[in-house]
Amino acid sequence: MNSSISPSSSPSTSKPDVTLSLKTSPSHAQESFRPEERGVRLIQLLLSCAKHVSSGNLHRADAYLRQISELALVSGDSMQRLSAWMASGLAVRLVKCWPGLYKALNFTKLHKPAELPLAQSIYTPHFPYLGFACSVVARTLVRSLWREEVVHVVDLGSGNVRLWSPLLKGLAQLAGGPPHLKVTCVCSRKSVLETLGHGLVKEAETLEVPFQFNPVNAHLRDLTMEMLNPRSGEIMIIVSVLGLHALLAQDDRVDAQFVAGKSSTSVKECKQMGEFLAMVRSLSPKIFFLVEQEANQNTNRLVDRFVECLHYYSAMFDSIDASYGASLLCNQLERLALEEMLGREIENILSCEGLEREERHERHVSWTVRFSRAGFKPVRLWLDPSNDEKGMFETRVPDGYKVVTERACTMISWHERPLYAVSAWSC
């Protein structure tokens, strides 16, 4: 997506000239660069544009957006496609300088709701990230629950039936029979809950696993202990997949501008997250599984998180190329849908501040501090990469993925760039 936003240079007219369009065909400027040169040039332009956006220099930012639009291409190579989305995020931030204009555009296409079931159905089969993470969670759970009678697993927002299929199969094979399994799914989308509940009930019946599904139609920030309906005698398990970071959103807009001062390197206190973890800990869960993006995008300064966003999502888009580069047209359309999902994350990271910015990814070391503050301790993940890695990938994946496992954390990387971290905690 290529964007151009510039207020008129004439003092007598204040109406901005705004164009937001998808660019699908190459320009003459693109043809004058080799791919490597074009990638370097795009990075230079994006960094310069981010600095001008964050300092409020709209005219200079607009000039860089125009140059980026000549080189970025939503159907080009991975750097061109990423640049289109990065430029779009910066452009949306500029459009917000005119609240009326931004809201008018918002009515139509800038923020159409994410199709989570579609995105996950594309994401999981073609990438080992979540499929692998779900397998690690399932194997650790099966090893931990083989003597339990009633197990209550709380899914904090993933709504992905593939998260539970390995667990149901593992429990069905336990010596002495499976425990009674109760799954509570917390999700703000009712359609996701309906789809998940239907799929789990059907599979549990097939595997003859005693099963109960408890849908909770709510956002994590509104979740209460009563909604989870805990019962005496049941073993509580908490699982969060790529959703807990939304609770880090807070009103930190005062320090959001690109100004002189120290960069935030320490773990910031967050009242909402602290209260949530305290509430969860009061349930005395046996294990809390956490799967999160391995990135440092919860900094106040726009340029700091722009650079981290560029590094992180360039690896993501490169891995997408490895999976879809030689695919047929139908899979190319799937790729565009997947990149749009990632593009919305990029837009939220770059264009939003305060409570509106929910994509606040943090590295595992920061989550370790947060969970330790709340009174949790790390738990060993049951995984032997030398034996399990290939078996956990349901489909063939390209070279370049790497799995590094320690006792309480598994890192999934693409060409040495960690993308996701899986960890487990107990009270």
Automatic annotation (TrEMBL):
Intervals of motif LXXLL motif: 244-248
Motif (VHIID): 151-155
Region (SAW): 351-426
Region (Disordered): 1-35
The keyword Signal belongs to this UniProt entry's keyword annotation: no
Keyword GTP-binding: no
Keywords, comma-separated and alphabetical: Transcription, Transcription regulation
Record field: compositional bias (Polar residues): 21-30
Biased composition regions of type Low complexity, renumbered to the chain: 1-16
Family: Belongs to the GRAS family.
Name listed for the protein in its UniProt record: Scarecrow-like protein 3
Source organism: Punica granatum
